[in-house]
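Lecture 7 notes: from sequence to structure.
We start with the chain below.
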Amino acid sequence: MRSAFHLLIVAILLFGGAWPVTKAALANATPMWFAMGRAGLAALVSAVLLAALGRLHLPARRDLPSVVALGLLQLGAFFILAHAALTMVQAGRTAIISAVVTYWLIPLSVLVLGEKVPAHRWVAAGLGLAGVAALTGPWGVDWSSMDQVLGHLMLMAAALFWTLAIVTTRKWPPPTPVFELLPWCFGLATLLILPFALVLEPSGGIFGPAWPYMLYIGLIVAPIGTWCVIEVGRRLPGAVASVAFLLVPAFGVLVSTLWLNEPIGWDMAVGGGLIVLSVILASRP
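Predicted structure tokens for the same chain:
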């Protein structure tokens, strides 16, 4: 668990700030093309790095369930839904709701993986979800707006796809190190996103001022952050991982507040405190 928490810290720093950066980039880029760009760049940089190390090779047969699940669900479907929702929902909310695998991962870990969740981890999950409720401030959402409702539903679906990928890699763990599978996972995601970009955004693209953000997300955040998140999901028990991932959006809210001047109030202090408390409780044996 200790090594997994080290990787979690890296994921928090990279992914927590990714959605505010993406929100800023979408002032000069369209969502599907930006999503495809980050997946394509991540596939390229991870392939080049592995080739330089002499470790680039085709996945083994037993790797395929993980490659398909990670490529199509955690990366492809998640990117499509989350990037589209980002045009309807604040960056802070996007970071929180898309990363809240708690409401999917714990029940699926029990039902599919047969994990036994001790009582204190159920309490930790409850505290974490209470923190999420405080951070997202559902009372501040205009529920009469179809865009707002649709955006939030898309983010919940994105979290479900991410969860299904975690469950798949835990049930059928790949014999190959996950880092060596990243080019194929990101490649599949790119192929899945491409038709959405062509059909939904025929005149879209990534334009001048958005490219520095694109390069940061595609070359650094996507490959390194994704590897850390996948390994955390594989190494930690489902209940612990689902609660620990809440630290990522909590940091994202902080970055959104400081950089994009999104509203802040008592909710951030209370929500952040509840999430930190839930992670401490969930990490107990």
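Points to note: The longest helix spans residues 146-171. The radius of gyration is 18 Å.
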